[in-house]
Task: structure prediction
Amino acid sequence: MIPGTLRPLLLLPLSLAFLLTSAASHARSAVEGSAGSASASSTMATKTSDPRKKSLTANPSSVVFGSVQVGSSQTQSESLTNSTNSSVTISQATITGAGFSLNGLKLPLTLTAGQSYTFRTAFSPKSSGSVSGSIAILSNAPDSSLTISLSGNGTSAAQVTLTPTTENFGSVVVGTSKSLTGTLSATGASVTVSSATSTSSEFILYGLSFPLTIASGQSAPFTVKFAPQTSGTASGSISFASNAYNSPAKETLTGTGTTVLQHSVALSWTPSSSAVVGYNIYRGGKSGGPYTKLNSALDASATYIDSSVQSAQTYYYVTTSVNGKGAQSAYSNQVRAVIP
Result:
């Protein structure tokens, strides 16, 4: 019985050695496994810390033109940058959207690493309303396509209307003047009139101060005076400069300067058979009156000369007789005088 109990005691170191060996083996496995995990983690970190760069970038990435009047244009700058480590060749640029255009982008275009190129985009709306479009850039870069968005809003065009567009002053005596009126009106949007220029010193503009802003649907009156300096036909124009798409607005002017011609009308009549102390002379601009008395005092004779007549006019005359008590007769018969 005693030898049987000693054998297990002799085997105990072997079991302990086995256990130690096994623990050491497990420890090595744990260390190796840990090292392997660390190596894998190190490899993954290296891969995620080197992301692929964008091949071609646009600045700005979208172009917003805002509101632009129909008939006008607005431009903005756009830049393309090669952000890779090698050259990139741009082979094609396609623009879409009504009213959008490119300027200064000549293809094919090769950009070295880090190089930028600037060109211009323009928006010229043909009608009112919102418009969107894009520029599609095609290159040999890994990311071969690049899209730049475009947007703008066409607004109603401001238009200035001049009434009338022609003025004829007729005949004006040298040394005197004649004035005619006109109006400037704005439609579509407000109009700012910056200046007005006359091509002749004989035609002078009055009634406007510049710059002048006219709200849409409103108008501004003005006056043009013709003051001939010499006899003969005169012509000229006044041009109004503004921010309207149909600027400048021009008014054509004509007139004739004439020398002073002294016309007169000599009147005579049969004296009254009644006792009278004098006569009154009346003149009108149309047959049958009304008439205006010409003499300031009674005319004792039966004749009168009217020197206040003007060319190209027709006048109508009547007379009355006045007795000693101041009583005035009815109008005489009417006579007509045509002044050449």
User: Anything to note?
Assistant: The chain has three domains: 56-155, 159-258, 265-338. Residues 110 and 192 are 46 Å apart (CA to CA).
